Every structure is written in structure tokens, then in C-alpha cells.
Automatic annotation (TrEMBL):
This is N-ethylmaleimide reductase. InterPro entries: Aldolase_TIM, OxRdtase_FMN_N, Oye-like. It holds the Pfam family Oxidored_FMN. Transmembrane segments: none annotated.
Length: 363
């Protein structure tokens, strides 16, 4: 990326592999409307409403029965799920948006009561998260201790990711975003307090980044590196991820490895990094180390997004919560139309209220 004072959030953006109508991405957001873990018509309507984004990144979606830790999140490991997603990719494409699916394997952040099919709560090590989780069956529950993944579990999980990636392309997705952020399976491998393995997947930085790189490589081999992106959240502590000294070195080495794989993009969630004294410096290092696209996210508005683009810190800016309550967010940003506030109480409820009933601006 170069400094470019002419660049606009609202103009079309084109690379060899991706053609977007603007530089606005809709950030991945779990909305828990996938009853039975199968994408449905209501979800198609929701994404269709938000298809003025150049790029939609879907809610976290499990590539494995073991990765579906929360209630009513979708999967992409059965035929019915793949069929359900077709409605959504079709709806987005009809309105001219590109759409990537986020692969979220929840790893140790899971309760078996939420699994839609038989599954196991897995993690790099048997290190339990000190967190509670909602289950539709019996309300709030503490999260159980995960089973430490065996070599066989690692191989199977990598195969699930690459199979799901092929199925995502069959379902019409333009690509896949690997969820390497927010304390889910991939990030669990990076953190030395959560990953205490003594084999080649734990200990040194090279070992802790190995699983993430292997997953990324297998997905890239399955569908093409140009269709594979990854989300990272350096310094994240959400989901009981204790801070660790080697964060900058870990992410620098990881991004060097991802860059060698020639992935389409890295998507940096800035919140925790921005608040950390070494964070902003690290974000710049990561952006500079990566040759393809950089997406940034976390608390952006029109002004800060345009600044990030013009300073060359990002190619695209992702917006999360503002897209929940403003289905026509790009137009509102462009025309300075006031934004509606999102109702947090319906973020994860099960029906259309607080989901598809937010108004488009009449201005
Ligand atoms: C309701 C809700 C659900 C979210 N679910 C996900 C998710 O599934 N995957 C993910 O990577 N981030 C998820 N996030 C984080 C957002 O993608 C984004 O990083 C965060 O909202 C900060 O961006 P913002 O300030 O533009 O909202 C979620 C955020 C919200 C508000």
C-alpha cells in the first residue's frame, strides 16, 4: 500500500482477483438466526439488505461439527448447510456485493449443548476458559475443559477446513476468511497460556504459528490463495486469552508466513492492539510485511476510515455494529446521514426483530 490522498471509501476498487464497488466491508458478525445451524431465508434477506457493501464477510461459520460452539450459529459441513448458503451468496451477488464466508472454529469456546451434530470440545491443550456461555437448552453454563487435540484431531480438522472451503466455493462464495482472532481455535494455538503443548505445535513461536499456517495453506491449496483471507487480533484478551510478552514477535512471524502463502488479505481487528502501548506500532509492521490487501476494523467512522485509506494503512475498512442498525450504511456514510443505534438486546436473539427490521434512510 502507498500513501494516496485521492483514494475514496466510496469508489470502486479493483485488484487482479477482486473487483469491489467500494472500499467498505461488512465485518463478520454472529447473529444467531441459523436455527438448526442451517442458513435460511431470513439470513438471505438480512445479507441482501446490506449488499451495498463492497465486500460482505459473513458471520462466523463452523467448518466442523466440533467448531459450532454457540447456539444457532451456522455451519458449512453438511449438504443442507451448503444449500442454505446458496440463497445468501445469490442474494449478495444480485445486488453487486462480493461475499466471503468466515470460518470460525470455536475450539475450546464451546458448550456441547450447542452442537447441532455429535461433536467434541477441542483445544490445543486441556486448558479450560474461565467463561460462561449461553445454551438454549439450559441457559448460562460454564464452558467445559476441552480435550487436547491429538495428531489425528489436527489432521482431521485441517481436512475439515479444506473440505469446507471447497464447499464454500460450490455455495457461490467469492472466498473464505479464516477466523484467526478473538480467542477461537486458531488464536488458541498462538497463545502460550492456552497452548501448552510440548510437540511441534507448542512452545516456540515457530511451533505455535504452525497450525494456523497449515490450515491457511490447506485452504489456499483447496480453493486458491487469492480466495483466502485471514482475520487477526493481536493483543486480544477476549475469551480468556491471557496477555503474553511475545505477542509482537508471534504476529510478525505469522504474517511473514501468511505473506509467503500469498493470501488475498489480512484483516486486522485493531481494538485491543490500539489500546496497547506496542499495538499501533505492531499494526504498522504487520501491514508493511504483507504484500496483498489489508483490511482494518474496530470503531471506525467515515473520517477515521478515510484517514486510514489515505495514510496507506489499509486498502479496505470493515464496519461491524454500524451495519447491524444501518442496512444502507455506505449511503449514510457518503451522504452524512445520521446513523441509527443498534439494540444490543437483539444481537443474538432468534428472529427478525433487531435483525431485518432496521429502516433504510428515507432522506
Ligand atoms: C453482534 C456481534 C457479533 C460479532 N461476531 C463476530 C464474528 O462472528 N466473527 C468475528 O470475527 N467478529 C465478530 N464480531 C466483531 C466484529 O466483526 C467487529 O470486529 C467489532 O464489532 C468491531 O467493529 P465495529 O467497531 O465496526 O463494530 C462481532 C461483533 C458484534 C457486534
Amino acid at each position: 500500500m502507498k500513501k494516496d490522498t485521492e483514494v475514496s471509501l466510496f469508489e470502486a476498487f479493483e485488484t487482479k482477483n477482486l473487483k469491489l464497488k467500494n472500499r467498505i466491508a461488512m465485518a463478520p458478525m454472529t447473529r444467531s438466526r441459523a436455527i438448526g445451524s442451517i442458513p435460511n431465508d431470513l439470513m438471505a434477506e438480512y445479507y441482501s439488505q446490506r449488499s451495498s457493501a463492497g465486500l460482505i464477510i459473513t458471520e462466523g461459520t463452523s467448518p466442523s461439527p466440533n467448531g459450532l460452539g454457540y447456539p444457532r450459529i451456522p455451519g458449512i459441513y453438511t449438504k443442507e448447510q451448503v444449500e442454505g448458503w446458496k440463497k445468501i451468496t445469490h442474494a449478495a451477488h444480485e445486488k453487486g456485493a462480493k461475499i466471503f464466508i468466515q470460518f470460525m472454529h470455536t475450539g475450546r469456546i464451546a458448550h456441547p449443548a450447542n452442537f447441532a451434530h455429535e461433536g467434541k470440545v477441542l483445544g490445543p491443550s486441556a486448558v479450560q476458559a474461565d467463561s460462561d456461555m449461553w445454551t438454549d437448552e439450559s441457559g448460562m453454563q460454564s464452558i467445559p475443559e476441552p480435550e487436547a487435540m491429538t495428531e489425528d484431531d489436527l489432521k482431521k480438522t485441517i481436512a475439515e477446513f479444506s473440505q469446507a472451503a471447497k464447499d464454500a466455493v460450490t455455495a457461490g462464495f467469492d472466498g473464505v476468511e479464516l477466523h484467526g482472532a478473538s480467542g477461537y481455535l486458531l488464536e488458541q494455538f498462538l497463545n502460550p497460556h492456552v497452548n501448552v503443548r510440548t510437540d511441534q505445535y507448542g512452545g516456540s513461536i515457530e511451533n505455535r504459528i504452525r497450525f494456523v499456517l497449515e490450515v491457511a495453506e490447506s485452504v489456499a491449496n483447496a480453493i486458491g490463495a487469492e480466495k483466502t483471507g485471514i482475520r487477526l487480533s493481536p493483543f486480544n484478551t477476549f475469551n480468556d486469552m491471557p496477555a503474553y510478552e511475545e505477542t509482537p514477535e508471534t504476529y510478525t512471524k505469522l504474517v511473514e508466513g501468511l505473506n509467503k502463502l500469498d493470501l488475498a488479505y489480512i484483516h486486522l481487528v485493531e481494538g485491543f492492539a490500539r489500546d496497547h502501548k506496542k499495538g499501533p506500532g505492531l499494526l504498522n509492521v504487520l501491514s508493511e510485511k504483507f504484500d496483498n490487501l489489508v483490511i482494518v476494523n474496530g470503531g471506525y467512522d467515515r473520517e477515521s476510515a478515510e484517514k486510514a485509506l489515505k495514510e496507506g494503512r489499509a486498502d479496505l475498512v470493515a464496519f461491524g455494529a454500524p451495519f447491524i442498525s444501518n442496512p444502507d450504511l455506505p449511503r449514510r456514510l457518503q451522504e452524512n446521514i445520521p446513523l441509527a443505534e443498534a439494540d444490543k438486546s437483539t444481537f443474538y436473539s432468534a428472529d427478525e426483530k433487531g435483525y431485518t427490521d432496521y429502516a433504510f434512510s428515507k432522506n
